Amino acid sequence: MKNINLFFKLLKKEVGFHKPVVGFENPFKVLISTVLSQRTRDENTAKASKQLFSKFPSAKKLAKAKTKEIEKLIKPAGFYKVKAKRIKKIALDIEQKFNGKVPFSLEQLISLDGVGRKTANCVLVYSFRIPAIPVDVHVHRISNRIGLVKTKSPEETEQKLMKLIPRNKWIELNDLMVKFGQKKCFPRNPKCENCLLNKECDFGKKRIK
Questions:
Q1: Which residues have C-beta within 8 Å of that of residue 101, sequence separation ≥ 6?
Q2: Higher-confidence residue: 41 or 143?
Q3: Residue 168 pLDDT more than 90?
Q4: Are residues 100 and 163 both part of a single domain?
Q5: What is the mean pLDDT of the chain?
Q6: Which of 110, 126, 142 is the last residue of a domain?
Q7: Which of 50, 145, 152, 183 has the most beta carbons within 10 angstroms of its beta carbon?
Q8: What are phi and psi for residue 96, nearest 5 degrees?
């Protein structure tokens, strides 16, 4: 698919009404929630995040928390022992390196132990409204399935999309693709037959012949 404007037009129609990304969400909560979201379902992330932030709503408080207590609170997110150590270390780094404030540059964010480009880009987009393209499983899968890119890793997908997508559309891309992936473009059995993008999508065109 080469017509990016048409892609966004059809994608927005498929997603339907969605709250625009306005940024300014609590950067600490976005950062930690994104780490918790790894290899788990959205509802599990939401439950774990709610429990965690009800007791430790800041880097300062989380940095001082006992690991066992963190594990108990984030258990719904899975891999809770690994994640507990990771988010506690992130909180400590924020306190020690950045005076308790989440940084707002990609380089500084990925300097935090356990924070990769996807997580860093989520913070840039959803907290600071800085143009970036967070590539999660939805974005990587859908970009390749439609034919926007031909890549093997999320990192490669990010670099290709940054060249392909106009910068003024970066902020909304992740939100739209995630919603599309949850609503119609499923990992298995996507609903190609009634998808508005099926005539433009490499996968869809083959499937509905």
A1: 94
A2: 143
A3: yes
A4: no
A5: 93
A6: 126
A7: 145
A8: -85, -35
Here the tokens at position 196 are 């508005």
Residue 156 one-letter amino acid: E
Structure tokens at 89: 């270390």
Q: Give the 3-state DSSP-derived string for the chain, with helices as H, strands as E and coil as C.
A: CCCHHHHHHHHHHHHCCCCCCCCCCCHHHHHHHHHHCCCCCHHHHHHHHHHHHHHCCCHHHHHHCCHHHHHHHHHHHCCHHHHHHHHHHHHHHHHHHHCCCCCCCHHHHCCCCCCCHHHHHHHHHHCCCCCCCCCCHHHHHHHHHHCCCCCCCHHHHHHHHHHHCCHHHHHHHHHHHHHHHHHCCCCCCCCHHHCCCCCCCHHHHHHCC
Q: Could you give the percent of the chain with pLDDT greater than 90?
A: 87
